[in-house]
Amino acid sequence: MNALGFYHILRENGIPDSQIVLMIADDYVTNPRNPYKNGMYVNGVKPDETWYNEKTELDIRGSDVTVQNFFDAVLGTGSKSLQTTNEESHLLILLTGHGGDNFFKFQDEEELTSKDIANLVEELTRRKKFQKLLLIADTCQAFTLFDKLPTTTPNNVYALGTSLRKENAYAHHSDIDIGLSVIERWTYGFLNQYRKRPKTTTTTTTTLYDLMVAPFEGPTGIPLGANVGTLGDFREIRLEEFFGSPLLHEQISTRKDASPSNNNNNNMAISPVQSSPIPMTRIGVETPRLTSTPRHVSSSSYPMDMTAVRDDDYSSPLEPGDTSFCLLVGGMFVLLILAIGVNGKSQDVSNNKNHL
Question: Which helix (H) or strand (E) is 196 found in, with range?
Answer without folding.
Answer: helix 185-196
